[in-house]
Structures are given as structure tokens and as C-alpha cells.
Amino acid sequence: MQRIALDPMRHALAVPIARAAGTLSRRLGRGGGTALPGKVVLRLSPRAVEHLGAGLRGGTVCVSATNGKTTTCRLLAAALTCDGSALVANPAGANLMSGVAAALMAGRRGRPRPDRALFEVDEAALPEVVRQLRPHALVLMNLFRDQLDRYGELETVAAAWRRMVDDLPPQTTLVLNADDPAVADLGRRRSSVVYFGVDDPTVATREVSHASDSTRCLVCAQPLEYARVTLGHMGAWRCPSCGDARPAPTVRATRVSIDSTRGQSIEWATPRGTASATLTLPGVHNAYNATAALAAALTLGVAPAAAATAMGRAGAAFGRGERIRVHGRDLVMLLAKNPAGANTTVRTLLGDRDPLHLLVALNDRTADGQDVSWIWDVDYEPLLDHIDVLTVTGDRAHDMALRFVYAGLPRERVRVVENPSRALDAALAGVPDDRPLYVLPTYTAMLSLRAELVRRGVAREFWRDA
Amino acid sequence: MSTVRLCHLYPAEMSIYADRGNIAVLRRRLEWRGMTLEVTGAGLGEPIDDTFDVYYLGGGQDRDQEVVAADLGPTKADALRSATDDGAVFLAVCGGYQLAGHGYTGVDGSRMPGIGLLDVDTVASTGPRLIGDVIIDAELDGVHRRLVGFENHAGRTSLGDVRPLGRVVHGHGNDGASGGEGATRDHIIGTYLHGPLLPKNPALADAVLGWALGHAGHDAALEPLDDALETRAHAVAASRAGVRR
Ligand SMILES: [Zn+2]
Known about the structure:
The structure holds two protein chains of two kinds. By secondary structure, chain A is α/β, with parallel strands linked by helices. Chain A contains 15 helices and 17 strands.
């Protein structure tokens, strides 16, 4: 009883104190200070997110996945604000409970005051965020093997998500990827589910990639069969033993035309009519991200054509297919932080038919995962015949060099430059004027390379980019 | 041309920690010396014979490891015992190491049987997973060698009548307490070190290849390779382990 009485009071005091902490951090020049006020408010009021989120009458959306959270949120934010309405959202990277709390605090000061919120949420943090926020829509896109040293194995996250879904309030609509068996399975016991998927056989590949995990049936544990594989373990799956199969998606990408590494055009069929858009985002993984965003926008009442048009105007998210002009050349930053993401990047690069200039940056800090063995689960081999020059950099540059050497790239064509800034110069120096430099960094390597580009005055700081 | 024949056990179920990197290293280090590696996969329900020069068993997720544990005894244990008695190499990493021992007892008391080729036994701990960079000092063929790797295991492995692969310089090792890592006898190596194990430990890779070539009937010494990158990667991994003390 006491706790209930004290909670609102604690909360009322916590918000201004936390806000002051954030202001101070910015004045001291500690960068964006995006998560600090959130950390402070949670320390003072552990259920702050529940309190702060209660006033959002237009609905809240949480988006989670191993890969594609940031891009999907960027596209969905464009769709949700296409009528000029305001939106609370967390910046890329601030996707734990503290980032959600900080964004909600900032949102209360917005004018006009937003009545909707959209959050990308870390897979492991998601169950607790959802328990407090009770979102209107919960978008779940994929589960891939990520950082084993940090999260434990994939099954741990999948089990936590299953318990989370069992406890969801009835008003939450699940927006699920029909093509990912483990994600689709979450809708089994729910009535309010919207499935999305990619239905264009021309973007399918022949087989499930080595890095895939969930190729066993969740009902009977027998191996699944695929009529087609679109990406990793995603596609038209079916269990030959018990008959469990991919649910029919109601929001479907019916046509996906990928234009090299520059972008793609997508046509969709939805219960509320067809829509189409041309995105500046390459790769079939972005077809999934856009389809997820469209399904979520529909769930919140946005018309498909309006949502698609708005998504077409949204550019690439920070570091995710972002094109930056540097010293007269295009640099394309393609975050590649786990096997599934890196495989997707490899596939995207193969769309560019000319010799490739690559800079691969491997760090092993906490946010990257300290275990760098994942690079051996990536199928880099198809790139070998297309690589002109490979430069590797980062804390574990030599590990990455060995990965390519043992794949079969001659040692003399691998250049190791441990310092990221010098590696950038070395890599750029060899690129012809009309060709891009493709940069494949892990998360913290992306942050440091991008910070270097900001110092050189060619890229914008990410916390100004929200 | 000399060929080494390797049997990759359960490639679909047991290769979570980049195990194919170890096989790529064995393949290339033979090819760079004008020899070849022939790899045969053996999955669930598939019996194997005892004529391979190297058997490889990696790590898997819990559910897959259970399925494999039930299959290993009936379809593969006899051939593995006969082959290793004959001097074949058996390299067992992470979960594979646990299954090469007597077995694994889960937190709930459930028992996953192993094949007992190494006299070790593993019990799951309710304590923290043992995760991080590892450095060990090992002795192979009478030569001291420093090995680096990464470990990530909940199980605590205790050794019976078998010597550890190495002494822990940094990291947790078999159980976080005894100071030993892995286990070895004859040409059998069990270890928690991945990363993967062989790219940054070229001396170990060549020791394994020496045994395998001997088993295949080729006794020529392995000519040295340019290991500048490997040596540097080894040094960086060792220094990362030091930094994270
Ligand atoms: Zn089934």
C-alpha cells in the first residue's frame, strides 16, 4: 500500500531532477547525453516508463528484432508523422529502458505535445519495457544469433519473448514477421495479430545460410522445409512432420525490384489496398524493414498509400546504408554487426557489378560483443572475386584479415591499418572518382568512423539526426 | 598428392561458435603446402567408419546438443574409439568437449550422456557462465605452446585420469577454480577455447596436421608458412585478455 502512495510523488520529483542532469551533461560537452536523464529517472523512480507512457492516447509502438530496428523505426516514424502530427521517439542506440524513459521525458516538453510514441527496443530489454508501457502495437521482425557473450543463446531471448507475449494485455496488436518461424510462432495463441511477409519469389535464394538458427519446427522439433528462402532462415517455411507452416501474411511485399546498392522499389498488397514506394535503401533486408513499418502504420490507422509515400521520402538511418560524400567520393556505411546482418550486406554488395573497394572494421567492445568468432559464420566467400582492395581496421583488424586470407584472398591484397582514421584515408586513396568506398563496421567501429567524419565536417552528429 | 580426410560430426547441429573456421584453417594450411583436405559431414542417424584421419565435433545450442548426445553413442562412438586408438585425431570444442567426456548433468539434474573418450565429466552450474578471453600454456608433443581463445560455458568440467590441455594464464578454464583448461590424451584434444581455436594458434593447427598426416601415412615434415598475420592476431588477442582482467 505504501508503495502505491509513494510512487507518484517519487515520480513527480524524479523527472525534473533527471532533466537537470541531462542539461548539465550537454553543457559539459558530453555529447548527446541521450540516455543519462533516463538512467537518473529510473534510479529515482523505477516505474517511470509506466507513468510517463500513460498519457499517450494516440498509441505507442515498440519495435524489436536482432536486425533492422533502427531503419524500421525511421521508416515508421516518417509514416506516423506524414499528417504533420508530433511523435515521441528514441534516437538510435538509446534502446534500453533508460532510452525509452529519456525520450518520454523529452516528449512531454514537445510543442505540439505528441500523443503517439515509437520506440526501438533492445531484444533483451523488451519484455520489461513492454510490461510497463503496454504498447498499442508490438512489432517483432526477426531473431538471429547475435552476441553470444552478452545475451546467452538465441533460445534464451526467444523464451523471454514467449513469456512476454503470454502476458500481453488484450489491446496490444502483435505485428509479426510470418517468414521468420520463431517470430511467427509467437502469434499462435493470440487473436489480435497482423502478419507481414515478402512474397516476391524473384528475391529468393536457394538455401538457408550457414548462420541460420531456427530451422527446426517449434511444435515438433523436426527440420523445416522451405519452398523459398528470402533471407537467412526467413521465407516460405513448412514443417513436413506436423504440418505447421508460415501463416498467410496480410501485409505483403508482392514485388521487390532492387537497384544495385542504391535502393529499391516495392509494391505491397494490404487489406486496405495496394501501395508502392521507391526507397533509397538497398537490400532485401530493407524490404522486410519497410514491410514491417507499413504493417505497423496500418495498425495505427495510417492509410497504406500515405504511409508508403512518406517512407519513400525517408533516407537511410545513421550508419545503415547511409551515403556520405567524403573528399570527392561516396562512402557507403553498411553496419554489419552479426552474421545475419553481415550476410545481408554481402548480398547487397553483390548487386554492384564493378570491382569493390572495401573497408571492414572489427571492434570487440561490449556493444559489439567481445567474442569475434561470429565473423567466421559470415559467408564472405562470394565477395572474393569482386574485391579490388580490402582494407581492415579496428581493435581486431588482424582477426578480420585472417578471415579473408583463410577464405582464399591472397595475403598481398589484404591491407591491415589498425588506426581507423588512417585506415579511412588509406582506403579512400585507392578508390576511383566514380566508385564508392563501402565501409562494413561493427557498432562501435561505426560510431568511431562516423565521429571521424563529423570531425572532418562531412557528416552530421547522430544526436542531431533524430 | 597427400590428402587428409576429415569427418565433420554434426555440421548442422554443432557449429555455433564458428567451428567451420577451424576446418578452413586445416584446409588452407594443407593447400598452401600442396596437399588437400577432404571433408565428409556426418549428421544425425548417419553411422561413420573409423578410417578418417581427423574427427571434428564443435559446439551447439542446448537443444541441438541434447539431440546429438542421444545420437552419438548409437551411431558414432564405436568408430571414434577405434579410430582414436589407432592414432586418429579427435578435436572436440565447447559442447563437443563435454560430449567427448562421460557426460553433462544439467541444473535440473537431467543427464546428457557423452562417449567417454576423455576421462572428464561436466556439471552445469547455477553460478555465472564462464565467459571471456583465455590464455593457456599448453604442452603438445613435448613443446610448450601458448594458446589464446574465447570461452563461453555454463558447465564446470572436472578431470579424472587425464591431463589438462593447458594451464590457465588468464580466464576461467575447465571450472574456474582448478587452473586447468581442456583435456588431452594421445591425439584427442578437448577444449573450451573457440574464437575459433585454430586461426590464431597456427602452431596448434600444424601440430594437429602433423598427427593427421602421420595417420594418413605421410611422415614428411611440414614446411613453415608466412604466419605474420596469425602471430599478430595471436598477440592482439593475448593483450585483449590482459586488458580485461
Ligand atoms: Zn512440426
